[in-house]
Design brief:
By secondary structure, the protein is mainly α. It has a domain at 37-70. 35% of the residues lie in helices and 0% in strands. The protein is built from three helices and no strands. The protein starts with 26 loop residues before the first helix and ends in a 15-residue tail after the last helix.
């Protein structure tokens, strides 16, 4: 059975029962431990899941590291990654 999405709450629920809610409640915590990227649709169509994206990027990094020597950019500390 297909459900129909509506703009309001389902019968039996009241907005005041749900509480105020907080926008971006976990944003800072999430931002510290996550590097989330949005793939363009044509790129996303090639990958089945996050593991396949990570595998492809690791392979690319490995090939790039074998092809050229790493370059340290001025003003960036090599140990801290900045």
């Amino acid at each position: 059975m297909k459900t129909v999405k509506t703009a309001g709450l389902r019968a039996g629920y009241k907005r005041e029962d749900l509480g105020k809610g907080t926008r971006v409640k976990y944003f800072k915590k999430y931002q510290k431990g996550t590097n989330l990227v949005l793939l363009s649709p044509d790129v996303a169509a090639v990958f089945h899941d996050d593991a396949s994206v990570n595998d492809a990027l690791r392979d690319l990094i490995r090939v790039a590291n074998q092809s050229v020597s790493p370059v340290t950019r001025p003003g960036h500390n090599e140990k801290s990654g900045r």
